Hints:
This protein is an all-alpha fold. The chain has a domain at 16-65. It is built from three helices and no strands.
Amino acid sequence: MRNKERIDTFTWEFAEIWKRSFPDLRFGQLCMNFFGWLQSKKEKDPFFPEKPDMIEYFREYANESSLWYREN
């Protein structure tokens, strides 16, 4: 069985990225935009990355995209 504590760690880190970079987006908007980016730019299926990889992808996505969201 997987360690349940990984969920808290991931959701805390995800919440920080969401609040800092995309505070005006609803959860569904953020997820759909991120998953589209993950598949098109990184050529990754969101079903497979483990937590450490996924949070790094979120950080990268935020660095590339958050400025656009703040300006528009």
